[in-house]
Amino acid sequence: MARDILTRLVINFVIMIPALSILVYVLPYSATEFNYAMVLILVSIPFIKFLTPSPYKGAVYPLSAIIFLLLVLVTLLTNFTTVFSGTYAQFISLPLHISTFVSAIVALSMILVAEGILSDRIYRTVALLMLSLGGLLDQLAIVTNMVANGTSYFVAYEFINGEEVYSLYTLVVYGYQLVLPLANLKIPIGTFLLGTFVVSIIGILTALYIRGTKDSPETLNRFGYPVFMGSIVGAAAFLIIREVTKYGIQLSVVSISIVVTLFLVGYTSRRTRRLLKD
Fold it and tell me: pLDDT tens across 112-134, in order?
């Protein structure tokens, strides 16, 4: 049982490597603008849920959401009414500053990453990877712009988000996006990040194969063929992504590669079962 849990956590960690890599890169630049207490409290929620007995796991997030909404209500009442006042009210209310909003957004991405690592379902892990990348790629664009232009975090934050709003506007009005923030930036970890997606794809293949049987240790001993197929798929995806990088559509190709990988898993699983019978 403990070995199965450890195997699951390791594979989930491999799948979430792209998101983890972005986190490791952006945090040294953006963490100076965080509300540390808020981030630590929010990020602790997935681990509290993981350690909570099974009958009560489902109540962790609803209870956390209720507490957070109550804090928001107290904050609004403290700052805009005379219902709450005094030192105690100020102590339990949230600071009305953009850093609070940024902290909540980054903490949400970190929660999604933690949930992906702790998840017991492969499809949920992949979905959480995609969801976490939404906020993390935004942070990557902000930090890249910040470093390239020597600006502060919040100046880069306003610039990148302004470009994203304009991009959505052109998509709705003209049917295509005129501005793509990440496509116009030279990302220092771009090549490394593409490599992590290849590793993630291999991790997805590994997870789908192992979780397709009940005996994980026995499956690991028979894992040569799926690893071989996963390496081929991953290498092909990496080469294609490198070629399309100059067109600014590498992230779209990564998403397509992951979807194609999921379809190929069905074939590799059937092929593996036939080889094992021979």
Answer: 999 999 888 888 888 899 888 88
CB-facing half-sphere around the CA of 230: CA atoms within 13 A: 23
Report the pLDDT averaged over residues 257-267.
62
74-91: string of b/e by CB count within 10 Å (b at 16+)? Answer: bbeebeeeeebeeeeeee
The stretch 131-157 carries a mean pLDDT of 87
Residue 273 and residue 278: Cα distance in Å, rounded? 9
- CA atoms within 13 Å, Cβ hemisphere of 228: 8
Q: What is the pLDDT of residues 207-247, one digit of tens each?
A: 877 766 554 444 445 555 555 565 666 666 666 666 655 55
CA 1 to each of CA 8, 42, 123, 151: distance values in angstroms, whole numbers, following the listed order: 11, 29, 21, 51
Cβ contacts of 195 within 8 Å, gap of 6 or more = 238
Burial 256-273 (b: 16+ CB within 10 A, else e): ebbeebbebbeebbeebe
**Helix, strand, coil tally for the chain in percent (to 5):** 85, 0, 15
The rounded distance, in Å, linking the Cα atoms of 258 and 30 is 29
Q: Where are the domains of the chain?
A: 23-176, 189-278
- DSSP category for residue 95: P
Tell me how many degrees the CA angle 252-31-127 measures, rounded to the nearest 5. 35
Q: Please give the pLDDT value at position 22.
A: 92
Identify the pLDDT of residue 212: 60
C-alpha distance from residue 6 to each of 23, 131, 205, 272 (Å) = 23, 24, 17, 24
